Amino acid sequence: MRSNISKQEYQRVPMNVGGEMLDAAWLNNLRENNKTKKIYDSDPFVEVYQFRENFYGFLTDLLDGDNNYVWMYLIVGPEKAMLIDTSFGLGRLKDLVDEISGGKEVIVVNTHCSCDHSYGNCQFEKAYGHVDLVDDMNWKQNPGIWDYLFDEDGKSIWVDFEREDLIPFKKYEFIGVQDGHVFQLGGDYDVELVWLPGHQPGHAGYLDKKNRILIAGDAVCGGGVGLSGGSDFFADEHHARDKFQGSNIPSEDSRRTVTAYRDGLVRVSERMDEFDYIFGGHGTNDIDKNIIPSIIETCNKIIADPDCYDYKNGDRLQKMVPGWASIGYFENGV
After folding, report:
1. Is 38 helix (H, G, I), strand (E, B) or coil?
2. How far apart are CA 67 and CA 216, in angstroms?
3. Helix/strand/coil (H, E, C) string of 79-122?
4. Residue 28 CB neighbour total at 10 angstroms
5. H/E element holding 24?
6. Which of 37, 50, 258, 302 is the most exposed place for a label (fewest CB within 10 A)?
7. pLDDT tens per residue across span 51-90
8. What are the backbone dihedrals phi and psi of residue 243, each rounded to the nearest 5 degrees, phi first?
9. H or E element: which one contains 10?
10. Helices (H) and strands (E) in the chain, counts
11. What CA–CA distance (Å, rounded) separates 63 from 161?
């Protein structure tokens, strides 16, 4: 079962510099025409799409931006389920997972520690991710993580919702694992953590070999690729909207660079016989794997000549990827 927009429809969509038009057209088609779309009473803030027999996409609002969205994914294995990312924690996400999985034990994992991918962790007892996420993930365990979403009168700033719709914060255990760690969902159903730094030092994807898909988080997003290099991912006050979007890892860390991003994708490219499609953290998903060599080629151009960018977005430099969108990076992030 695949989403019902054809390759011809992708090609007919005009694409602007950031890829937003392609994303918007694809998303509108999905939301209007996908027959698997369902909204459950257990969590009405999430649109659920069944992309494969046992693989679901959860689409929810990006709470700190206008008209944008973030994906979570659920794999229902023979004995256990796996929830990949937890968004902001708006609504009863745990109840939704329990309903779809039939109450199976759920393994919660994160691609990275950004607010839109991990703040819902507190609805569960524990979560897993790459070992390089541990310090930052534990630091962000605080009841004040959502404060910046509201103005001084307690009204939500970007998306209309009530504070009580956020499930109250509680501490959870975050467990760091190494690149290549395998999570077992029962029988011979395994999902492997694949380290994909650049967007963040501990950023990771998850390889579902049964479905032949790579859940790539923000390393490869629809309508564009994971922004890489420098401090854009809130390692400093200049780019942070609130203190909990910061990081204990300096902006200049080598794991934040375009080089680290490129090297991670090269490792993945050597395993392209193990998957066919990519599901990212934002925008278009079910992406053909063959975008990866084009991203690598573009990274190589940036590394060879950081001044080869095509345009600027604030203090971020953007380099177009042929047939797709762009890589974002900073002068100090190559």
Report:
1. strand
2. 22
3. CEEEEECCCCCECCHHHHHHHHHCCCEEEEECCCCCHHHHHHHH
4. 11
5. helix 20-33
6. 37
7. 999 999 999 999 998 778 999 999 999 999 999 999 999 9
8. -65, -25
9. helix 7-12
10. 7, 16
11. 9
